[in-house]
Amino acid sequence: MTFLFNEPTTFADELIDGFVAAHDRWVRRVEGGVVRAQRGEPGTVAVVIGGGSGHYPAFGGLVGPGLAHGAAMGNLFASPSARQVCSVARAAETGAGVLFTFGNYAGDVLHFGQAQESLVAQGIPCHTVTVTDDVSSASADRLADRRGVAGGLIVFKVAGTAADAGHPLDEVARVAELANSRTRTMGVAFTGCTLPGAAEPLFSVAPGRMAVGMGVHGEPGISEQDVPTADGLAELLVGRVLAEKPLGVTDTRVAVVLNGLGSVKYEELFVVYSRVARLLAAAGVTVVEPEVGEFFTSFDMAGVSLSVCWLDDELEGYWRAPADTPAYRKVLASAATVGTDRAPETRTDQVPAASEASQRTARRVLAAFDVIRRTVDDNADELGRIDAIAGDGDHGIGMQRGATAALAAARHAVDLGAGAGTVLERAADAWADKAGGTSGALWGVALHALGAELGDEAKPTPSDVVTGVCAAEAAIVRLGKAELGDKTMVDVLVPFRTELAARVESEVDLAAAWSAAADVAEAAAEATASLVPRIGRARPHAERSVGSPDAGAVSLALIVRAVSTVLGEGEGQ
Ligand SMILES: Nc1ncnc2c1ncn2[C@@H]1O[C@H](COP(=O)(O)OP(=O)(O)O)[C@@H](O)[C@H]1O
Ligand SMILES: O=C(COP(=O)(O)O)[C@@H](O)CO
Questions:
Q1: Which atom of ligand 2 is least distant from the CA of 109?
Q2: Does 356-568 carry CATH code 1.10.3660.10?
């Protein structure tokens, strides 16, 4: 239960304000997150971490000497957008490039991936190391598919210390990769968590039961059992992580992190750790500077995870090195020098010139965003319910955040006299910024591509609209790499676009063509129920999802149907 909030929609922003106000010795706020209050030495690599909010101290609390140089902080349980990640990276970097390191979640991968492309295009070298420590999220032969959880602390620490020591980007990426390849985490949950303003927990575990391997957003675990004793839990966790010792590693020293996920007390953690320490010693393992506390939480979820990283001499040096961040301090690190700030990326309140025809189209686009927002609001609970069957249950919330922000941005751009292309592009950025998540990234690039096709001059013809929808589809496929049959929104988008194009080709008017294509989209969304997911967060629990449609496919079908009502009203537009 979250007791204290003002508006649920502004919670994530307000928490960053308060966090920075309380920790301005360490961090300063930039668009999209925080960076160190004092910049690193010129010419040192900037380590930029990040992800959704709701996991404190991940990620902002881990920014400071000896750890990260910046953290991109997204909305609750949703990745920051590519623009936000870029903004943090540009504020943090000092001329030697940027290392992105973050948990392996689809939304984070998409947004950080786009940000990396953008930095490289700006001449800033950038590498990525995704954290994949969660042993329960994929089998040992698919290590790269695993999610990133509390073991990220070890990877971030190693990378941050190596960067502060002045190592070049390749080297910082190498040691981060090495740390990740040797880190394993196992987690359990006793209760779910409740986001601000929500009446129900995002997910739940039956009283007295423990979900083994449940993810930090309620991703289904691998089994369930009665809650054991503290010793019983220690045995389960230690047994599982030691069984995962990487092949070929002979080292016997380990970094250990026993992590509370939100509402397990430190006292309980210490009781568990007492047995963990004895079990590790009995297994012939030497523990190096263990950490017991909260390092990667899931709001008020009751749960515990154990992370172990097998250390060689090099990693041990980085792990033992001092660090000084709001939430993680070893000893005081030496003060960093203050560098010159890059000019922040600014967005002006100006829009490019547009023809009157395009301004009229822009008003129709605004009407479409209005109806999209209302449709998403009306269906948010159901979308969340479908997403929770095999995913993380936040599809409705994410779509609401995106659609609401897109509507506001579209309205603002229309008021400034923008044409249709600019309105769509501004709405796209706002959608991606506020929604986060996989669908936020995909809706962002799709609306951008549509806007680029429509432009700010000509009144779009029906075939321009088809070209725009094709561009949106291409952008989604390029970024998400889903294929037909993977059980995603692509399974609706492709038949929708095909039907629309065929109807427009045979000179059916746009509103009628769109409405016929919306029928096809609805049927295609229903048909995803029989598919087995091959991509995205639902994939690890593929079998659970059979019989239920894909959440992103359903929301897309709802949206194209809603837009068809606006086209029907828009004579000649
Ligand atoms: N690679 C992909 N390409 C296209 N669509 C995808 C892809 N991965 C996931 N999706 C769509 O995104 C939806 C989930 O969106 P959302 O809830 O925002 O994501 P997350 O799992 O990151 O929280 C899925 O139902 C699916 O339709
Ligand atoms: O869940 C998170 C990001 O995953 P999405 O795929 O964007 O939902 C976030 O809380 C961890 O970074």
A1: 6
A2: no
